[in-house]
Design goal:
Order of helices and strands: EEEHEEHEEEHHEHEHEHHEEEHH
Number of helices: 10
Helix content: 25-40%
Mean pLDDT: 97
Bound molecules: alpha-D-ribofuranose
Oligomer: single chain
Number of domains: 1
């Protein structure tokens, strides 16, 4: 099988997670439970997911000249990612403070550090990797000008450009025309389309509005309900698996990484979404971000 190679450009964080009965309200202190520290960051999670699930993956990110940066690079190398394009910054490595409640919902604050230091010049310096990739997978935890430049370069070089627009932030309209596949959740889709999204019908309307702005296809992730594929014709709903979730952190990242692997193997979008659904169902059953991402052998289709 000829596989297209996947390039992920995005964030790298160290996640510090506390399990708690309830998420604190503003001004409130709650006594939580177990504390864990592990590898995270939407970019890194998606790159690791794509690699563990069988992709040929290069990961470009920016980390600090500190112990977190050293550990992250060593970890990515152990995972089998091509780390040749990782850049060091004078800012500290990214850190995410995460609380996870009994319903598996989380609350995340990211200290972006080096992630916020990814510049257009860094993207220009990564030109060869961008122009050689089959699929470019992006998120929004690095600055938008860098995302825009990478998407434009990859689009012009003929790659498939995939954007997971998380966390949502203002985007220039120009970006949308470079995006072949847009993977928002319901809240993000509502933000970018300006339309309410609460179910498959409203998601389909909002997806059409995004296509009018220039994006190619969409897969709207709808949490425990499933995901909606919008290719322009009749939408296809892919139901989620019924599992007992303990931590939803990195479920969306696993979905995106898995989806790109299936696409890199030439699978149609519906089959790719079924594969991604099976992978993310495993992620939510374990605590942590990368600690919970499954391997190809674990996927039961
Ligand atoms: O999507 C989950 C990720 O968001 C976490 O790993 C955390 O680092 C934040 O970037």
């Amino acid at each position: 099988m000829t596989k297209r190679n996947i390039l992920v450009i995005g964030s790298s964080n160290t996640d510090m997670t506390v399990k708690t009965r309830e998420l604190p309200r503003p001004g409130e202190t709650v006594l939580g439970g177990v504390f864990t520290m592990g590898a995270g960051g939407k970019g890194a999670n998606q790159a690791v997911a794509a690699r563990r699930l069988g992709g040929d993956v290069k990961f470009i990110c920016k980390v600090g000249r500190d112990i977190f940066g050293d550990n992250s690079i060593a970890h990515y190398e152990k995972e089998g990612l091509d780390t040749g394009g990782i850049i060091r910054s004078d800012l500290p490595s990214g850190v995410a403070l995460i609380s996870v409640d009994e319903k598996a919902e989380n609350c995340i604050v990211v200290a972006s550090g080096a992630n916020a230091d990814v510049t257009e010049a860094d993207i220009e310096a990564s030109k060869e990797a961008i122009e050689k990739c089959g699929i470019l997978l992006l998120q929004l935890e690095i600055p938008v000008p860098a995302v825009l430049k990478a998407a434009k370069m990859a689009h012009e070089a003929g790659a498939t450009v995939v954007l997971n627009p998380a966390p949502a932030c203002p985007l220039p309209d120009e970006l949308f025309k470079y995006i072949d596949l847009f993977i928002p959740n319901e809240t993000e889709l509502s933000t970018f389309s300006g339309l309410p999204v609460s179910d498959a019908e409203s998601a389909a309307k909002a997806a059409a509005a995004m296509q009018a702005k220039g994006v190619g296809k969409l897969i709207v992730t709808m949490g425990s309900k499933g995901s909606l594929i919008c290719e322009g014709g009749p939408e296809v709903f892919v139901p989620a698996r019924k599992v007992k979730a303990v931590d939803t952190t990195a479920a969306g990242d696993t979905f995106c990484g898995a989806l790109c692997v299936a696409l890199s193997e030439g699978k149609p979008l519906e089959e790719a979404a079924a594969f991604a659904t099976a992978a993310s169902a495993l992620t939510v059953q374990k605590m942590g971000a990368q600690d919970s991402i499954p391997f190809r052998k674990d996927i039961n289709l």
